[in-house]
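Bench log, entry 3. Co-assembly request; chain sequences pasted below exactly as received.
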Amino acid sequence: MALTAGRLAHVENREAWRPRFADCRARSEALAQHLLPEDQVVQSMPDVSPTKWHLAHVTWFWETFLLLPRLAGYRVFDPAYNHLFNSYYEAVGPRHPRPTRGLLSRPGVAEIARYRAHVTAAMERLIATADAATFRAIAPLIELGLAHEEQHQELILMDIKHVFAQNPLAPAYRTAPLRPARAAPALEWRDFAGGLVEIGHDGAGFAFDNEGPRHKVWLERFRLATRLVTNGEYLAFIADGGYRRLEFWLSDGWAAVQAQGWEAPLYWRRAPEKADGNERWSEFTLAGLVPLDPFAPVVHVSHYEADAFARWAGRRLPTEAEWETAAADLPVAGNFLDGGILHPSAPIADRLTPTLTLSDRDAPHPYPPPRGGRVREGVTADASDRANRDLSASLVPLLQIYGDCWEWTQSAYAPYPGFRAVEGAIGEYNGKFMSGQMVLKGGCAVTPAGHLRASYRNFFPPAARWCFGGIRLAEDG
Amino acid sequence: MALTAGRLAHVENREAWRPRFADCRARSEALAQHLLPEDQVVQSMPDVSPTKWHLAHVTWFWETFLLLPRLAGYRVFDPAYNHLFNSYYEAVGPRHPRPTRGLLSRPGVAEIARYRAHVTAAMERLIATADAATFRAIAPLIELGLAHEEQHQELILMDIKHVFAQNPLAPAYRTAPLRPARAAPALEWRDFAGGLVEIGHDGAGFAFDNEGPRHKVWLERFRLATRLVTNGEYLAFIADGGYRRLEFWLSDGWAAVQAQGWEAPLYWRRAPEKADGNERWSEFTLAGLVPLDPFAPVVHVSHYEADAFARWAGRRLPTEAEWETAAADLPVAGNFLDGGILHPSAPIADRLTPTLTLSDRDAPHPYPPPRGGRVREGVTADASDRANRDLSASLVPLLQIYGDCWEWTQSAYAPYPGFRAVEGAIGEYNGKFMSGQMVLKGGCAVTPAGHLRASYRNFFPPAARWCFGGIRLAEDG
Amino acid sequence: MALTAGRLAHVENREAWRPRFADCRARSEALAQHLLPEDQVVQSMPDVSPTKWHLAHVTWFWETFLLLPRLAGYRVFDPAYNHLFNSYYEAVGPRHPRPTRGLLSRPGVAEIARYRAHVTAAMERLIATADAATFRAIAPLIELGLAHEEQHQELILMDIKHVFAQNPLAPAYRTAPLRPARAAPALEWRDFAGGLVEIGHDGAGFAFDNEGPRHKVWLERFRLATRLVTNGEYLAFIADGGYRRLEFWLSDGWAAVQAQGWEAPLYWRRAPEKADGNERWSEFTLAGLVPLDPFAPVVHVSHYEADAFARWAGRRLPTEAEWETAAADLPVAGNFLDGGILHPSAPIADRLTPTLTLSDRDAPHPYPPPRGGRVREGVTADASDRANRDLSASLVPLLQIYGDCWEWTQSAYAPYPGFRAVEGAIGEYNGKFMSGQMVLKGGCAVTPAGHLRASYRNFFPPAARWCFGGIRLAEDG
Amino acid sequence: MALTAGRLAHVENREAWRPRFADCRARSEALAQHLLPEDQVVQSMPDVSPTKWHLAHVTWFWETFLLLPRLAGYRVFDPAYNHLFNSYYEAVGPRHPRPTRGLLSRPGVAEIARYRAHVTAAMERLIATADAATFRAIAPLIELGLAHEEQHQELILMDIKHVFAQNPLAPAYRTAPLRPARAAPALEWRDFAGGLVEIGHDGAGFAFDNEGPRHKVWLERFRLATRLVTNGEYLAFIADGGYRRLEFWLSDGWAAVQAQGWEAPLYWRRAPEKADGNERWSEFTLAGLVPLDPFAPVVHVSHYEADAFARWAGRRLPTEAEWETAAADLPVAGNFLDGGILHPSAPIADRLTPTLTLSDRDAPHPYPPPRGGRVREGVTADASDRANRDLSASLVPLLQIYGDCWEWTQSAYAPYPGFRAVEGAIGEYNGKFMSGQMVLKGGCAVTPAGHLRASYRNFFPPAARWCFGGIRLAEDG
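Structure output for the full assembly:
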């Protein structure tokens, strides 16, 4: 997630900002409070940053964009930090600093805590003492700074999970166990009529600039699965040779499978075979290594895996516009960071999915052919059925749209028509990631509640697996 | 360009097929007739294939999909060729054969000529002797085979150009000199009203399957430049620090610039400095090394470079749908392979672009700000002017839409709504390249005439430079 | 330095072992006492190990080879540590654990301190309580374990220096400043008569097995420089284009210069140019970044650089046998770890080297041609002079033979005639590094005093620079 | 093999030179006469050069070092060839031309034949017309040029074998079949007394400069195997887990086994399993793919494999000095290029080795323990037997010392004491390969007869397998 600056709402009631600011800063620190200093240094791959780097970088943002230009007499904590904690720094030449963040043991954790306290206190002074004109000017930047720090709260958890996963001791981030598995809802399909719709942020409230402008898109009829794909369903894909059968994969995806030896989602571990096939696997979570829950959503798959799974299931991934249209009227609620679970889980539902017995090779394919189209098995639906279908009869509820897993779409991350990056340093790089990445929607179990919107566009390269990516299926209507 | 099978027209008049088939086969052989056997072995990078491999691979297609299943008593020329010349072969394991095509000296050029003659004769027998039912069944495959061989005719020239470019002796593929430079037309802008349009192939005549289904797209108002960007204009970008200024580049593009040391288009060579800046550069062409023509279209730039140039010019690249809408009513004519020039050139025009004197640093920026929007320099156009503009007054002609250069769009190569790959081996990989690549439109100076359509979708990864990619600018309307 | 087991002396007086063991364990811990936990996790390159890994690995040695087989009732501290801290572990397959030691934040520093205390106490119990026969059997293993832990004491300092050097803040390991620079002794040459000599360990006292068997070697007459090459002399090599002139370099060395962009020794930093050339450089040391001392020995050069320097100076590096012959009668004393300087420095001497003024390009070449041979400049000495030379007149003292810098030899690390590796796990890998590495002699400023012998053979690949490698010149006699 | 210039014999009888020169030039051309032009372009890995490059490069040598400086009025054939065919050219910067030799299709084979004829004629003119003083000056250079062209004759065959081996069609270089297998001689051991010996070239006749100076070396008693290791014996090593058992391998060798997936010598191909274990393998030779001959010497193993095999057999490789001492009095005769076999083969002998039945797992280990030392199995010989052994009784003949396979030694390639490179361009790089390579002795089945001497030092990196490296075992005496 790159930092992007949006069309910011003016919020002039400074009393409202004080607790929001204080809560946000405190939440960042709370996320690290059970970690050792040793944990906070490690960078387990170039895309991961150490915990202490995140804690310092978000602090550098406040210092650089708010305190230095706006708080008279502000004393910079340490001038060297501008180089160390500026993620915008672009090395011209052969050495890129990003992959080397894990080589820096200093400043240590205690020193960074002092840096945070210094900047937090100064920000509280600025909020309390800025005159009205200044406050109007900085309020949008405070909102942006909070959204930025929230993004890094999610990254702290994504990244420390990857760090701990490298360790044969499988350390747990949270000490409480995960809640017991419960059956997943039955898989159903919700119809949408399509037509000329509008997507993108409408300007009410905060948004990053990549969410706009709001614009028209033509959609054909489509259907979305009412819940996320489960681990049990994904196991059926694996058991059916999913990772060995070229025909399901995009060309670049197949190359990634071969080059990286993928055989399962990122954090799955194959245990010695048992009689009951469901228990062959365990999954590394922020609560440590646990038996794989067949009803929980599959998570930590790449776009390539999500796409291959969908092809195996005779479906496809939704487009960004389909997803946003479906989500437009739903409340932004779900399994987010604040719930404390820190892992996707099956929602409560009336109709449940039957227990999968994967060692039973005669079990029915979990995905029967779609009503309206050709599927892998060659079944063709009755066209008249399709024409006469009553969309209103299909209003089964959509579950897990927000929270649990970021949902991979089939849409490449690209500028919306009329998109303009914000001027200046904050917006300098807004559009520069709009190449080679795919859009994900809806947030996940480590996203701070309140951070999401229907128009929110997350993006990662199609091979990325350490973000909490999951799968919702779609099909033509 | 991957082989893709389309909705094929039934053409039952077999007499029409004989000369088309014979001409196509003869053209492939003519393309290699001035090459040495030594030239036809070399693979200068993994994406390039040796000439003799192309000549054999298209022959393998006829043998595998037409002769073996349809011609009674057909004798396979050499069973080993199925492995050597099957581009569909996917190595499971660490060794991919594609980058090693250049290691195979055998079968030699003479042997492959015998293979071609054997297959051509058998195909002529099949066309002459098939009963009516068989002929109806194979006519679409013949059409597909011809389109396939035409694609490889273009690849033969793309690839041998790259091979010769590695050689310090700079060998020429064609011995006739390029035609003298002539001034480029003045750069103008053509307005389009947008709205709910349809794109994609409508089913009349042959098309590859990725061109359909035809479908609705909503477009905002937009403008297209009336001609391609010239070498002279691209030189201004270089002179203005284009390759050294991070702010113009997509993040992945900047990484490519650094990693590969790009400083100019692929085949430009910097000669020792002269007083007249325009003559510092030469360009390697299929006619050998020639002085850079400032009026000819810039070619052999990557998508990253095209995008960075557009950003520098205060514009953007067109979308696939914008381009296709603009091209819909134009005749498919231009500087194609059959004209024999084999290099993009300035079209004949009334109003000419002024001579650029790049050594004159006070020369005006070649791209004045657009009428309707913000540009790099911060100029804002008069909104009322925009609202009242008379589109009909803007019907300046679009030049170079077909031929000269493949035009990079800003659209990622993705399936159209409702896209289905053809069943079976021919369609096995139709969709598998729909990830990580960008769409190009319009054909180029080495594309066989008759091969193109408005709906034709070419695609290459954004870093590819050896395809004949050029730049047409667009802007919001 | 690989662990190697030697022909061990029987030392049956167990009272002598107690303080040696306790002192050795305490010294390891003292080396880490001023480091933060954050410092002790970082692995700055694959060859470097984190401090806490070293502290745990040497402890694992005692547990595995002494306590488990010999101390009745010993309780393993944590069974998982055998995998984490066993440097002998060889992954069969694509993942080598060594480069990933820096990814393991757990067990943390405090936990490893508990591990050390547990093992130290058990070892003290074993030493105190073993019966006489057992003690005779384990005394050689204790001696080996002490030598092993001493090796890792040196590695802790080598490695943390490399870690800190990556940090733009340039943290200092030791807080006291280095001692002021003093003039280096004048460079003189000591003659040796050669003949049939013996080298290798003679069996008295402890040695690693690679130091034997003692064996005969024929040596021609040779000369050794009386002191190490200084930074000032190495600056003259750089100023003379040393890193840009192919003719001085071994082929693989030149490839390393190009591939890694070497322009100076590993820890030199070029400061902005000043009027006085000597002050352009600073050097990162364990006391932080200090101005380069022109009289101190050059250190942290690879074998390739040492060899290139020698060729530039018209000399060569000594062979292993020459060095050992020269050192045979000298006391093992010098600038070692226990002196606390932790950096090479100029020895006290009567005749001093003149101050180099490197900005003066007319200064004399610091290395006049050798008496007895051809040099770069083509000077040939008088042969009669050579024949009649009185060796006894040449008995100028050899300085810095021990301590300061490990001295690169021109000898590849190879087995001595009749060499046999020790049987079993301890000796399993004794000979396996005898390929592709070069021998270094004499110890350095971070080698524990008492660890060295004339027969001691250190070895590193010729491109290694983070070991404290320096240069002593030799020439034919 | 790098070009090295030696102390050249003066040979003033110019009539003797004419046929030597003509024969040498003709032999180079004969080696390529059955190749297609396509074959002569391919470079199958960076270490391999195309046939036509070799033919041009040796020609460039004559033009550059003889014709240009010595033949009045000589006209350079093409000035561009100095860049293309100068192996001494060292790119300063990121692009090394060597791996790109295979990208140059021009000049073609016919053009290079014209280049050769032009230079051959001029050289014949020079030899015929030079005045006496000139001829004395150039005779050593002619001798060097002939030795140089002979080296490249061997390289042409080494390299084209590697090229053909990449091709699934397995083309044969020579059309005649290999001679039928015959039983190998029994393995016996020849004793040598060691002592103070002399090795190196003594100055009589031509030698490369790396062969001198002649110098003293002390050798302990040793034994050499009387013949090379056979394929059958190497199969026993493989069957015993040789490539999977870490304990036999040097550390760098084990890394190469893992990284490159070695399971057998370079050109062995595993056929589908049969009842008789000996027939599971075939071997690619210059006569094409043939069943593996268990009695022929194993060839195309790296130094790492040779060393691992020796350790498995309880022996070691000989040192360079041991080999040269043993070979000193033997005639230089054997299976060389001129015999036309082009592959190692078993020599004729009285006592034959018994047939190995590798599918019989109870077969005796082919290498019983050595008389005088510890072996893998822990057997110790009677020391008194060793002391009293009568060396004269052990004068069994040494077979295959010359020809068949280059014999890997355990000696790193290093300068002899007192070595000086020749001055000037010819000697520029003489010593620069004396790092990271191992010495091989004795020539092989594609070395021109007359090219070898006892003092000849070939050298390759320890991982190289495409040179014809084989194994002779040694043990301590």
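The first helix of chain D runs from residue 14 to 32. Chains D and A do not touch (no CB pair under 8 Å).
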